[in-house]
Amino acid sequence: MDDPELEAIRQRRMQEMMAQHGVGNQQNTGQQKAQEDAKREAEERRQMMLSQILSAEARERLARIALVKPDKARGVEDVLLRAAQTGQISEKVSEERLISLLEQINTQTSKQTKVTIQRRRSVLEDDD
């Protein structure tokens, strides 16, 4: 059962796999670091733009919302950034304007919950 050719093939394959994982890990680590850096820079630019768009009170309120509902805060930020990029916002957004925007978004995204209760008669119940 000890075939020298088979053993040589296994050894070469093992060395190839080790080389791929060794070099691959270094490349993956470099790529991950580059991706993390790009994400961090993008987030910093986003926060810088938001600080230019929002007043201090509005930024505070949005930060508090982000603590409770991060996805909702991210959506509001996206709406604000798009509006600023298209020129719809000419001055800093006040807290009152942010509240009205939040209310509009709530009415658009609110889900109507409907509960229906179906009562079934038990086999043991006798109404007759």
TrEMBL record:
Residue stretches of biased makeup (Basic and acidic residues): 34-44
Which superkingdom does the taxonomy of this entry point to? Eukaryota
- Per the record, where are the segments of Polar residues compositional bias? 23-33
* Region spans: Disordered: 14-44
Give the coiled coil ranges: none
Q: Which Gene Ontology MF annotations are present?
A: DNA binding
InterPro entries per record: PDCD5-like, PDCD5-like_sf
Q: Which GO terms describe its cellular component?
A: cytosol; nucleus
Family, according to the entry, reads as follows: Belongs to the PDCD5 family.
Task: Supply the name of the protein.
Answer: DNA-binding protein DDB_G0278111
Record organism: Ananas comosus var. bracteatus (red pineapple)
